[in-house]
Design a protein that fits this description.
By secondary structure, this protein is mainly alpha-helical. The chain has a single domain, classed as yeast vps74-n-term truncation variant fold, CATH 1.10.3630.10. It is 55% helix and 11% strand. It contains nine helices and seven strands, in the order αββαββαβαββααααα. The chain has a three-stranded antiparallel beta sheet. The protein has a two-stranded antiparallel ribbon with strand order 1-2. A two-stranded antiparallel ribbon has the order 6-7. A hairpin with a 3-residue loop joins β6 and β7. α2 packs antiparallel against α6, α3 packs antiparallel against α4 and α6 crosses α8. The protein is globular. Keywords: Golgi apparatus, Lipid-binding, Membrane. GO terms for molecular function: phosphatidylinositol-4-phosphate binding. Pfam families: GPP34. InterPro entries: GPP34-like, GPP34-like_sf.
Length: 214
């Protein structure tokens, strides 16, 4: 177990995860995209990346931060190229989301918050689930989110986290019912305003369009 502060991807994962069933509350790929976007937000806050032309990522400082999730995400970004235009954020999110989730899973296992179990569907096909471990981090994460919502999202971290819940269709699970409809509408707008959340939103919409056209 480690007492290091939770990263934004870990916080989002805990909000999106059913600790009893050991599965996400939203579609797995949607969560991948949100986690990757959250990693970008933490890297930007740490001065490791910047954006150009609104949606292109450039690495401004390749030095690791000492966090396995953020360092793994940083290593997955292309090295800065002289005269290059950077990588489009939504493309990186689509290609790196699964890797960022695996980094989150490992970290939360180390913290004691999750247990990795391998099972077989129909007795044949192996799959993994991640029920809660001995250390309850999901309960506090949900309580923090509720407090932030009740306080009208008082800081940037809370606004980013809420934007990712909207971008990944998690908002209807965490904020269900008609009473939260105005807030969910505000969060949809916020998900378009924050570039890291918008990258996840675009990736989700791409999947939805592909599914509708198939």
């Amino acid at each position: 177990m480690t007492d290091a502060p939770l990263t934004l991807p870990e916080e989002l994962f805990l909000l999106a995860h059913d600790p009893v069933r050991g599965r996400p509350l939203t579609l797995p790929k949607y969560l991948w995209y949100g986690l990757a976007g959250a990693a970008l937000a933490d890297l930007e806050a740490a001065g490791r990346i910047a954006t150009e032309h609104g949606d292109r990522i450039t690495v401004t400082n390749p030095l690791p931060l000492g966090d396995p999730i953020l360092d793994g995400a940083l290593a997955a970004l292309p090295a800065p190229a002289k005269g290059g235009r950077g990588l489009k954020a939504h493309r990186w999110v689509r290609g790196s989301g699964r890797r960022v989730q695996e980094l989150c899973l490992r970290r939360l296992e180390e913290r004691g918050a999750l247990r990795r179990e391998t099972r077989r569907a129909l007795g044949l096909f192996p799959y993994e689930r991640f029920p809660a471990g001995a250390v309850d981090l999901t309960g506090p994460a949900r309580a923090r989110f509720k407090a932030a919502v009740d306080a009208h999202l008082p800081d940037r971290r809370a606004r980013l986290l809420a934007a990712y819940t909207s971008a990944t269709d998690l908002d209807t699970k965490l904020l269900p019912g008609g009473g939260f409809r105005p807030l969910r509408r505000d969060l949809r707008r916020l998900a378009r305003e924050e570039w890291t959340a918008y990258a996840a939103y675009r990736a989700v919409q791409h999947d939805k369009s592909a599914a509708a056209g198939s």
